Amino acid sequence: MPPIAGALSWTNGLRSRILESTACLVKFESSMENREEFKEVKKLTDSIQNTFNQFEAENIKSWEQGVEEFTEEKLDKFLLVREETEVAIEGFMRVNFADELRAILREVKYLQLLDAQVHPTALKLFTKVEIYRVDTIRLQFLVDTYNNILKTLLPVEKPLLQKKINACVTALQQGTDTLKWNSDSSKIDKFIKAAKEIICEVDDLVKKMKENVNRMQNTL
């Protein structure tokens, strides 16, 4: 469980156990409520309940401040990030979906299971949770395929496919320079489909090239 939902689940569990114990005392003996000992126990349990309520309120308030701070900022990031590498001058690609957004989405999921009140900004973000999940998976596939092409090509092989590699770089450029996580979903979808077509074509060429080389080596 994520931190906030985990804390609420913990306090809910303790609260239930205390209420059940108090109810059992009353059920065991109906006159129990009039005894001074029971009144002291009731006073203590009320104090504990208030402490739980305060603890929950403070945790939720702190989390909500983080939601306000991070959501818009992180959604305004480009889909992809180019990272320098000694392996290829073109650089590797990385999916740029912030860990803070993943954490918020995970919290909302569990808070809803606990029937807890959720901040409107977090709820708005959660309405697109499935879109983010699918898009990050699709983008990760593109990134892994592209990076693997650059990793596996030998120096003598790369010039033969340089134009194709340049086409891959151009295809991914929208993700590094234009499209962000708060961009129109249809534009992101169109970008991913177009980039996938080009990158998969180059990946197939690389695989065939490697197969032909291996075949020739085995023949010799």
Structure write-up:
The chain has seven helices and two strands; from the N terminus they run ααββααααα. The chain is mainly α and 220 residues long. The protein has one domain (3-219). It has a two-stranded antiparallel sheet with strand order 1-2. The longest helix is centred in the N-terminal third of the chain and has 40 residues, at 36-75. The relative contact order is 0.10.
Total domain units = 1
- SSE run: HHEEHHHHH
SS-derived structural category: mainly alpha
Low-confidence stretches: none
The N- to C-terminal Cα distance equals: 58 Å
Strand content: under 5%
What is the average of the pLDDT values?
87
Query: Main β-sheet, in a few words?
Result: 2 strands, antiparallel
Number of strands: 2
Question: How much helix, percentage-wise, in residues?
Answer: over 70%
- The oligomeric status of these chains comes to single chain
Query: How many DSSP H or I helices?
Result: 7
What is the 3D shape? elongated
Rg (CA only): 28 Å
Strand neighbour order, sheet with most strands: 1-2
